Amino acid sequence: MVGISVSTASYDGGMATHFYTAASVDGFIATDDHSLEWLFAQDFDQQGPMAYPGFIEGIGALVMGASTYEWLRGNQETWEYAQPTWVFTHRALPAPEDADVRFVKGDPTEVFDDIVASAGGKDVWVVGGGDLAGQFAEAGLLDQLWVQFAPVTLGSGKPLFTRALQLDLIDVARNRDFVCTRYRVRTGS
Ligand SMILES: NC(=O)c1ccc[n+]([C@@H]2O[C@H](COP(=O)([O-])OP(=O)(O)OC[C@H]3O[C@@H](n4cnc5c(N)ncnc54)[C@H](OP(=O)(O)O)[C@@H]3O)[C@@H](O)[C@H]2O)c1
C-alpha cells in the first residue's frame, strides 16, 4: 500500500478526528524529559504508507496539550501550521506571531463544535499527548488512532494513551522499520 486516504475517515462520511502519532513499541510518545531524539534517529519514508504529507493534507485544525505546544515552540524555528491550532492549557502561554493559536481549557466537549467549525469541513488532528487524546476519546470525540511504531523501546516516558479503548484495526503497513497502524475507535468504548 502506498499513500493514504483521510477523506473516508468517519463512519458517516463527515469530518473525523484523528490521533496521529509515532510511538515506541512499548507505548510512549516521548521520553520522561520530552525528548524525541529516539524518533528522529529513525528513517521514515515520507512518500510511503501513512506518511505525514498525505495525512496533513486532509487536516483543517490541530489540537494539542501544553507540553506538545511547548515542545514545538522550543524546537521549531517558526510556527509551521497554517491551520487553526487549539492548545489545551491552564496557563497563559505566549502565542507565535501571525499564527492562529487558540488557548482553551477544560472539557473538550465544550469547545469541540468551535474546533470543528474552525477546520472548515476538513478533519481534526489531535497531535498529542496521550492523555488529551484520551479525554477526546472518553467524550466520544475521537474517530481514529494512527500509530507508527518505531523500532525502539523506551522503558518509561510520556504515554501513548491513558484510557482503555476498544479499537478496530482498519489498516497496517510497513514503512522502513516502522509498523504503521490505523484503528477506528469503537463507539461507546
Ligand atoms: N511521538 C510523537 O509523534 C509525538 C506526538 C505528539 C507529542 N509528542 C510529545 O509527547 C509529549 C506529550 O506530553 P504530555 O504527555 O505532557 O501531554 P500534552 O497533552 O502535550 O501536555 C499535557 C498538558 O496539557 C495541559 N492539558 C491537558 N489537558 C487539558 C485540559 N483538558 N484543559 C487544560 N489543560 C490541559 C496540561 O498542562 P498545564 O495545566 O500545565 O497547562 C497538561 O499538563 C510532548 O513532549 C510532545 O512533544 C510526541
From TrEMBL:
Under InterPro entries, the record lists: DHFR-like_dom_sf, RibDG_C, Riboflavin_Biosynth_HTPR
Q: Which SUPFAM superfamilies match?
A: Dihydrofolate reductase-like (SSF53597)
Organism of origin is Propionicimonas paludicola
Q: What sequence ranges are listed for the domain Bacterial bifunctional deaminase-reductase C-terminal?
A: 83-164
Name the UniProt record assigns to this protein: Dihydrofolate reductase
For the biological process aspect of GO, one term held by this record is: riboflavin biosynthetic process
* A Pfam family: RibD_C
Q: Which residues cross the membrane?
A: none
Query: Any idea which GO molecular function terms this record carries?
Result: 5-amino-6-(5-phosphoribosylamino)uracil reductase activity
